[in-house]
Structure formats: structure tokens, C-alpha cells
Amino acid sequence: MRVRSGAVAAAVGVIAAVTAPAVAPGVAGAETEETAESPTVLRVAVTQNIDSLNPFIAIFASSTELMRLMYEFVTLPSAEDQSPVGGLAESWETSEDNLTWTFTMRDDVQWSDGEPVTAEDVAFTYNLMLEDEAARTANGNFVSAFESVVAEDETTLVVTTATPQATMLALDIPIVPEHIWSEVDDIASFTNDTMPVVGSGPFILTEYRAEQFIRMEANPDYFRGPAEIDELQFLFYRNADAAVQALRTGEVDLVNRLTPAQVDALRDVEGIAVNEAQGRRFYELATNPGAATRDGTPIGDGHPALEDVRVRQAINQAIDRDVLVDRVLGGYGEPGAGYIPPVFQDYHWTPSEEQRWDFDLDAANELLDEAGYPMGDDGVRVDGDDRPLSFRLYGRSDRAFDTQAGEFVRNWLGEIGIEVDLQIMAGTRLNELTGEGVYDLAFSGWGVNPDPDYVLGIQTCGQRPGEDGTGGTTDAFFCDEEFDDLYAAQLAEFDPEARRALVADMQELFYEQSSSMTLFYENALEAYRSDRFEGFQLQPDPGGVIREQNGYWGYYGAQPADGAAGGGGGVDTGVILAGIAVVVLLGGGAAVLIARRRRATADDRE
Amino acid sequence: MVSDVLAPSESLGDAPDSEGRSGGGSGLARYVASKVAGAATSLLLVILLGFFLFRVLPGDPVQTMTRGRAVSAEQIAELRERFGLDLPLWQQFIDYLFGVLRGDLGVSYFYSRPVSDLIAERFWPTVLLAGSATILAVLLGIWLGTRSAWRHGSRFDRTATGVALTLWSVPTFWLGLIVLMVFAVGVGPIPGMFPTGGITSPDTPPGVIPYVLDVAHHLVLPCITMVAVIFAQYQMVMRSSLLEEMGADYLTTARAKGLRDELVRRRHAVPNAMLPTVTLIFLHLGLVVSGAIMVETVFSWPGLGLLTYQALDVPDLPLLQGTFIVLAGAVVAMNLVADLLYRFLDPRVRAS
């Protein structure tokens, strides 16, 4: 019986020890408040995984966010308005025909191991992508028109392209050190996890534990000057609600990708501030305007009535975007019309009064009457072949918007004699079905880059699938020659004003065609511990985001708030006392148990 | 998550049956050999099933991974080729089968790393969580089950059974969130005492003891959640098998000898009632690993469950197949152990 009571005592010891760390940070926090030199650590909750630390392969938003902190770019979008500013490059000029770009590099930038950063490193990075398939995985589209990249001397880089490329100042490619990466045999399997990882960005990656945390230290030799905070930690949360709770307890200082409900719950919490940023995403209702492959062969089984532009326009008029923003987004967003979100002021387009279709069920009904879709006895319209206007509407189960918006859309379309069969499914299933053209209506959405080229490109005819029905990156089989012409023109247009006008024309045409209808632009919702940090640089400023920027400005600007609590944060004296109380209670309980055991064994012996 | 846990006990019926044919000195060897051969066959079927099962999952992994990204059709073709998705299905399977036999589970699409490395990394956190939760659940279940049966119909019995069945039927995810809200964030007078997720914190001072304490501190909430959900089955099995024993003659005899009630229970009734519980424990050990998926997701515990959950998201076929083989393999292995143990524990199985 000795053994047994010994075990109980040991258990008590373990419990006491386990609860002890809860107490310890509070104590440590109290101490650090007095010592001014303790490092300032900004802790960020990450809910998305890191797919790779290799900048050529990593494609997830969370990973690219890390890459932006670890590596500098040649040029990058400014914090204020996303216009290109110099990174490694000090200045640049183009030839008359816009095919040759000459960048002059700064001569005062160092790799974190002390080697200088030169034009050779940039040339090496770009050439690696031209030569190695695997190195094109993440950012290959940026170099697809490159013909040659040459470092003429330490500070001069010359890039020639086969066709004029308007995105040359928005190359989202992290520049890697040649003296490290030239030793890599196989880019595809290189994990890039030798700590500290040599880079030239504002933060140096010093520790990575998969699915646990990432530690980055401020680069003391960063050419713009070291960041105000000493350390940046990313903590992994697989459950977004748990991440929000961690913000409340002070375990993390910054959380993003919040839902409207989460923001509402955090809004009144003391010491927490909410950032309602204009988002860079749009949310759309895509139709099947006649799915076809690149050579025009019809595929899938979309409803033929949707090939009629008037049917699509009627649907467009039958959707009340204000209600969607209000009820689905909880007010955290803006009703949509143009294709590019308003956060990109230069390219955002809004229809004029005459062009604009406001929510008008009568007008939509009239339009369908005129177009020759008479209302059937059951309140559902039929087309020329007596086929009822009954559409499948697909949504994703992992996006709550789809279920909610889907119900509204079903009701509105019901009012104009269109029957909607709402089906919510896994995202992968939805992608598969829409990719094959097996749908009528579907919810979709895209994140837009500062340069609109890519997101406009997915609406061109050439992005439809090949003859075998695969390999397309089209959004919803939109194909319009005029749109394609405008697309080609904007890509080759180097005058910003003229390019803006072309992009506006494309959006007007797209709106008119109503192949896909932009419903709203959701805000990017973030929250942070305002009692500990301030000065996050937004992008764009004002109205922009702290996290997942096209750059590193958000973290780089962060600084400790006035009168901020020390490193521990969150755990206060009450918790310490409670912790002690729990230990005492458990210990007392165990003592009673031991005593009872003793008595019981004594009885047995009788 | 573990609703099918009680079912496998039926398979125990096989053990005595196959025993009937064996006899003599080589009986044990033949018994073991037949069980091992059965397990090996099951594993082969698992590999076969795993491969084709995940091929019918909707979604082209390459399309899913690159969706919302600026990729050209050429890049997509390159990715397909790199992952071997351009080969005919039968060839993909042959490649895969020989790979598995060599211990090579392929390369994860998502992480661009060998699947076996990823699984090895996540294996121990799951064993730690599932193992400690099982030990606690078994102890709690046996203790509560014994008391309930001995005083069946009492208020203690009714309360304990009610609580156990309620927790058993509560959704794990929901229970986990409640536990998290109450003990990590704190509600009313209860302060937040434990971390909201993860297995370690970045700020723990170096050294073995701080590390162990840090992990233990993170372990508390997921472990409590898991125990709460799974202890009911041990309690119920222990309760019912002890109830069966209680009518037995030998207990009357023991009592007639004048032994105290508690002694009769501890020394005579409980050991005999333990047999079904012990086999259940081993059968369940294989399943408990996959049962950790929900708990790991709520508490961001970096184990196999979380790995599987993420692999489903992509879908990351090699990783899914790999975790499927490991999880199913654990069930097969533990079934084998239970079969062998059953023969060892129950004299009736040996006597033929």
C-alpha cells in the first residue's frame, strides 16, 4: 500500500507542477515590466498551415506572408497606396519599346550572414526560375515573358522580356542569396530550414516547429533600420475560435480572418482593438454562360437559358446587394458591382447612374417577359423548348456566406419565376463540378493583387480548359473577344492613365454581360491587443490591413504601446491566487484519499 | 468519434472458434501464425483500399492547391507530372504498392516532404495524448463501473451512469470548445489556467524539466476532453460484466465464508469481471488514435489527427493514404494483440 500512496503523492506533484507554468508567466510578466531591456515580442495567431519554407514552392497565404518578412524584393507595393517603391532596387528605367528594364540596386544591403546583396543574387534568383521547373511553382507567372536576366555589375540588373509586361514593377518574387541557393541540388525537395535562414528582409527566421510556432527575430542590419519590435512569433491555431480566445487571454497579440460574429464579440473587450480593413477580395455569383473548352467545344450541362445575356441581366437585377452586406456580412463590407474591389482605388470601377442596375424585381420580370420566357402555371418560367428555368446553385460548405447568401438568392429569383435548387458541398467537389461545367449558378470569390492583370486574365477565352477538358484556370467560362482585346491592350499599356481606362472598359463590359456578378467586397477583419502594441502600418493607409499585406509594413511598423504590460501579458494576480487555490484543493483531496486508503488497508489486515 | 468502439468486441467470437482446430504442442504457434497472417492480409487490404478510396475523392489536388493563384496551364501540367498524376491509375498503384513495401509512403503534395517523415513527427504527440487519456479513462471507468455495479440502482449508480452516457453522446468538438472557454479563458470565478492550444510555448526556458512541464501544461485540457468522452465505455462494460458476475455462486460462497463485502468485491468479483474490459481496452487502443482527430483540432495539438484533418482539406493523396495506413494499421495491430492476449488471459480459450 506504500506504493499506492506514493503514486497518489506523485500525481499531486505532477498536477501542482502542471498548473505551475500558468502561474509563472504572470510572475515573469511582473518582473519584466521593471527591466526595460526585456525583448518586445509580438505574437500572431496563424490559422492556416505553412506548406513550405522554400519561397519557390510555398503557395499558401500564410507561407508567402513569412517569405515577405524573410526576403526583400526588387520593388514592392508601398504601404500608402500600393504603388511600386524600391526594395533592393534604388531606381529603374525602361527602353523605348518597353522590353528592356534596367534596375540599379542599392549597394548598402547585406544578407543576414554578412555577405553583400548584389545584382548577381537577383539575376541568380530569376534565372533559377527560368531554368528550373520546380522554382516556378509559386511565382512562375511573373517570369513567363522573361527572355534574359543579366547582372552587368554588382548594382546593375538588366531584364529583357519577349513581350511588354506591365507588371515588371510588381514582381512578387523573394530574392534569395546565391551563395546559399547555388548549392541546392533539388529545388522541389529543398526545405530551407537551416536556422537561422539567411535572408535580407526585416525579420530573420530563427526557429520553426511545424504546427507549433515560428520565431523570427528583427534583422539588426536591415537596410531600412531594425524593426521596433525585437521578436515576432507566429503561433498555430487550427481552430479559429481558439485563436480568438487566445487573443482574449493575451496568449497572442494579433488575429486576422475573423468572422463578423467574432468581431462583434471582441469589439467591447478592454485592451483589444478591431481593425475593419477594406478587403482585397470580391464575392461573386457565377453563371454557366455556356461552358466550352479553349477550341469552343461545349462541355458540361449548364442550362441553355443562361447563355442568353438577358436572363443573366435579369438575375443581376434581382439581387439586393445591400441586404446581402447587411445580413450576410453583418455590415462588414461593401455592395459590389465592378470587378476590382474599391481598396484598389486606381482600378476600381463603379457603374454610372444609367449603367447601374439597382435591385428591381419588376424590371427583372419585365426583362424576362420581353426576352420570351413566359411564366408557367406553377410560377416558374419556361424557355422556348418548354424547359423550366430551374437552376442549380452550388455553394461551399466551408464558407458560411454561401449558405446564407444562397437562401436570399433563392427567394429573390423565385420572385422572378426562376427556381433555384441550392446545393452546399465540399469546396473540392464544387471546384471539380464547376471546372467541368456541370453547374448553372455557383458562388465564387477571388483575392485581387495590386496589379489586376491576373484576376482579369482568368476571364479570358484562353483560360478555358484544353480539348481534354482539363488544365483550365478560367473562373466561369467567360469568353468575349472584345474583352480579350482589351486584356491584351492593358497588358501592353505602360501609361498608367490609359491602362486604368482600359481596365475600366473591361469591367464595364463584364458588368454588362453579367456572366459573373460581383455581389460584395468583404472587409478583412483583424483584432489586436491595443494595450500592448500600436503603430501597425496599414496597407493601404488609411483603411487597409495589418496582416497578409503585399509587403512587410504592418509588422515592421509595430511598436510597444505606451504603458504596455511586459512580455507575459494576460495572466494577473487573481490567476496566480486561483492557481495556488487549485493546487491546495487537489493536494488536500489527495491527502484525504491517502488517509482513507491507509485506514481501509488497516481494516483489511484485521 | 468513437461510436463504433463497442462493436469490435464481436470479433472476439473468432478467437475461441479458430481455437477448436488446434491442439497439442504446436497449438500456440499455429494460433499465433494464423492470427499474424490474418493481420498481414488485413494490412494489404488496407493499402489497396486506401489507394482507391482516396482516388474517388472529389477534386483534382493540383487544381485545388493552385486555385486563387496565378498559375499557367503549363505550370499545372508540370505539377501533375511531378506528382505522378499524369500516369494511368494502375501504374500509380503499382508504384505506390512497391513504395509502401520499401517503407516509402511517397511525398506529400502540400508539404513537399516525405510522408513517412511527417507521420513520424506527429506520431509521438498523438501517442502522448491518446495514451494518457486512455490510461486515465480506463482507471476512471473501471472505478466508477465497479462502484455502480456493486451498488446498482443506487443514487451513485444512476448519477454516474447518467453523467457517463451524457458525456459519451456529446459532440467532442463542442465539449472541447466548452472546456477551452472555461479552463483556458476562464468564466466567472474560474480563472483561465491553461493554454488555448498547441503542445509547447515558444517562451519556455531551455532545459528538460521546463520542457516537460510545458508539455504537461498544454496536455491538460485536450486530455481532460478526451477522457470525458471515452471513459463511459469502460465504465459501462465494467458495470455490466460485474453485474453478471454478481449472481455467481462463488461470490455467495465467499460471502458465506464471512469475508467482508469490500474484500469480496476487490479480490473475487472484480478480477473475474475484468476480462471483457481488458480486451476492450486493447481493441480500443487502435481506434483511440483516430479518435483524437477532433480533440487535436480543437486544441491545435500537432498530432496525427490534425495531420489527417489537414490532408483532407487539400486533398493531399499521399499524406491521406499514409495516415490511413498508420491509423488502420494501429487497429489491426491492436486487434492482433487483443486476440493473443485473450488466449493468454482467459483459460477457457486455451482449453480445447
TrEMBL record, chain A:
Regions crossing the membrane: 575-595
Subcellular location field: Cell envelope
UniProt xrefs under SUPFAM superfamilies: Periplasmic binding protein-like II (SSF53850)
Gene Ontology cellular component list: ATP-binding cassette (ABC) transporter complex; cell envelope; periplasmic space
InterPro entries on file: Peptide/Ni-bd, SBP_5, SBP_5_dom
Pfam families listed in its UniProt record: SBP_bac_5
UniProt GO MF annotations: peptide transmembrane transporter activity
Superkingdom as given in the UniProt entry: Bacteria
Residues of the signal peptide: 1-24
PANTHER family: PERIPLASMIC BINDING COMPONENT OF ABC TRANSPORTER, PERIPLASMIC OLIGOPEPTIDE-BINDING PROTEIN-RELATED
Protein name per the record: ABC-type dipeptide transport system, periplasmic component
Species of origin: Actinoalloteichus fjordicus
Species lineage: Bacteria, Bacillati, Actinomycetota, Actinomycetes, Pseudonocardiales
